[in-house]
Write a structure and sequence with these properties.
The chain contains ten helices and no strands. By secondary structure, the chain is mostly helical.
Length: 157
């Protein structure tokens, strides 16, 4: 939630300049992310090629040799920072598509229940959403969260 708040800080969709503000917030977030101690511990000892391989391996998605080479080349010639490479990997169309339903289920837990999903619930809703080809309305997912006792208990005095 704190990371989400940083990225969305002062962003009001529809207000003039919101896209530029969101892009700035996202860039600042990524720049700070690669400065985290855990990030340094995991990636500082890797070459640029090793860094790209590690990022790609974490996606679970196949990247083409050309995509990998472009990232490594950008890092080697300085036209791309490690934060920039991370952004390109995270925004890869195949990766985004592969993780969309999982992210959607997690956001239901965060948004409605204000907590991380438990394993059984996560798997249940992810399977159901996949069964309905990502159509959360047909899967009655949001409805189920809204009528859940856990959600309704948040508003009781």
């Amino acid at each position: 939630m704190p990371d989400t708040a940083k990225i969305s800080h002062n962003v009001i969709v529809g207000q003039a300049g919101w896209e530029a503000l969101l892009a700035t917030n996202k860039q600042e977030f990524l720049d700070a992310w690669v400065e985290r101690a855990g990030f340094h511990a995991a990636y500082d000892n890797l070459t640029n090629d090793g860094y790209v391989e590690a990022l790609v391996a974490n996606t679970g998605v196949a990247f083409t040799e050309a995509e990998r080479a472009t990232l490594v080349s950008g890092l080697n010639d300085g036209s791309l920072t490690r934060a920039g490479a991370l952004e390109r990997v995270a925004e890869n169309e195949r990766f985004v598509k592969a993780k969309f339903n999982e992210g959607f289920v997690r956001m239901q837990y965060f948004g409605y229940l204000r907590r991380d999903p438990d394993d059984s619930g996560m798997h249940f809703w992810l399977n159901k959403l996949n069964e309905f080809e990502g159509n959360f309305e047909r899967a009655e997912m949001v409805k189920a969260f809204l009528v859940s006792g856990e959600y309704r208990d948040r508003f009781r005095p």
